[in-house]
Amino acid sequence: MQALVAHQLNQYSVEDVSIDKPQVGEVLVRMKAVGVCHSDLSIINGTIPHPFPTVVGHEGAGIVEQIGEGVHNVHPGDHVLLSFIPQCGHCYFCEHKSPNFCLAANQSEPGKMLDGTTRLSINGRPVSSLFMLGNMAEFAVVPSISLTAIDTNVPFEIAALVGCGVTTGIGAALKTAPVRAGDRVAIFGCGGVGLSVIQGARIAGAKEIFAVDLSQDKLELAESFGATESFGSEVNAVKEIMARTDGIGVDKSFEVVGHPDLVQQALSATRRGGTLTLVGIGRIDHTISLNALMMPVSGKIIKGCLYGDADFKTDFPYYLDLYRRNQLELERLITKTYHIDEAVQAIADLEQGKNARGVIVFE
Which strand (E) or helix (H) includes residue 244? Predict the structure, then answer.
C-alpha cells in the first residue's frame, strides 16, 4: 500500500509500505479520507517528539475490511471514524468521565500498537504508526478502542474532519471553556481548528466573536463562519479588542497556534475572571511566563484543551448530527483535496498555511 512516511526530521515521502493483518483487539480499515492536520507536521518537524520512521496521519474515516479476534464493536463493511486517542473504558480517566486522557494511549512505546509491536514495515524494516493509527495510507490497522461506527450517509471527507480538528475546536468552545450564551469571545489563530472554535462559539450563542490571524484569507473565512469582527497583522489586536469591550476584555479567549507570544496576547485580551483556553500545541522548549501578582488578583483562568475534552463515542455522532442539521458547516472547511500521491504537497501546503483544511481522498 502507499503511505506517507516521515523518515527522519523534516524528511518525508510517499512509500510502498507492507501491512500485517489485525491482531487480537485490532481492526483493518480501508481508508477513504484523511485530514491533513497540523499535528502531522508537528511530528515531521519535531515539535512533537516521535520515533522515525513513522506513517503519519490521524484524522481519518474509512470502511472496516477485517477484524481481529475479540473485536465486537464494529464489523466488516461498517463505516468508521478513527480517534487518535483510544478509549479503553476502564482506566481512571475513562471511569471519571475524562476519556480524552485515556491511559491506553500511553500503554506502549510511541508509534507501537498496544502489544508493543508494529504492523507496518518497509523491506522488512519495522515502521511505526502515529498514535496507533498511521492512517495517511491506503489501509490502517488500528485498535478497536480507537474507532466507532458512523452512519453510512455521511461523506467520508466530512467525517474525517471530525476525527481531530473539528472535535478539538468545537469541543474547546462547547466543553472545555465552555462558551455561554451572550459571551464575548476571541480566537487567536484561524486555521481549521480555530475556525471550528469560531463555529462552536457561534453555536453556543456568543454575542461577539473576534478573530485574529495573519492571513486575510483566513480572516474572511472566519467571518463567514461566524466571527463578528476580525483583526489582521496591520493592527494591535489586543488594543482593538479592549476598545470594543469598553476596556473590559472578552469572557473567553482561545489560543489555537501554540506560540508563547500569542498566548500572552490572548491572556491580555481576557477580562478579569475570564478564561483563556490553550488549544494550540507549542514546542516542548517553549515556556509561558505568568505574573505571580497579577494572576491571583485578576482571577483569570487558564485551561489546557486536549481533543476538546472529547468522549468520541458520543461526541463524534453529536457533531455529525449538528452537521446534518446544518448547524455545523464542514464542506467549506475543506479548501483542497489531494490523492495519496500528492501527500508531500499536502504537507507543504499545510506548512505554508494555504488551506483551512486539506483532505486526502482515496478512491
Answer: helix 237-244
Question: For 174-223, how does the pLDDT look when each residue is reduced to its tens digit (9 = 90+)?
Answer: 999 999 999 999 999 999 999 999 999 999 999 999 999 999 999 999 99
Q: How far apart (Å, rounded) are the C-alpha atoms in residues 50 and 44?
A: 9
Per the prediction, the chain carries an average pLDDT of: 95
d(CA 357, CA 363) in angstroms, rounded, equals 19
Which CATH number among 3.20.20.70, 3.30.379.10, 3.90.180.10, 2.40.70.10 corresponds to the domain 2-163+330-361?
3.90.180.10
71 neighbors 80 (Cβ within 8 angstroms): no
Residue type, 295: M
**How many other C-beta atoms can be found within 10 angstroms of the C-beta atom of residue 77?**
10
Residue 273, all three cell numbers: 475572571
Q: Where are the beta strands (DSSP E) in the chain?
A: 2-8, 11-16, 18-19, 26-36, 54-55, 60-67, 79-82, 120-122, 125-129, 139-143, 147-149, 184-188, 208-212, 229-231, 250-255, 270-278, 301-304, 334-338, 357-361
319's CB contacts (< 8 A; 6+ apart) are 162, 166, 167, 170, 328
Residue 305, classed as helix, strand or coil, is: coil
Integer Cα distance of 44 and 7 in angstroms? 9
Strand order in the sheet with 208-212: 229-231, 208-212, 184-188, 250-255, 270-278, 301-304
Calpha distance 171→146 (Å, rounded) = 18
pLDDT tens digits along 286-329: 898 888 888 899 999 999 999 999 999 999 999 999 999 999 99
Domain 169-306 belongs in CATH node 3.40.250.10: no
Residues 60, 142: Cα–Cα separation, whole Å = 11
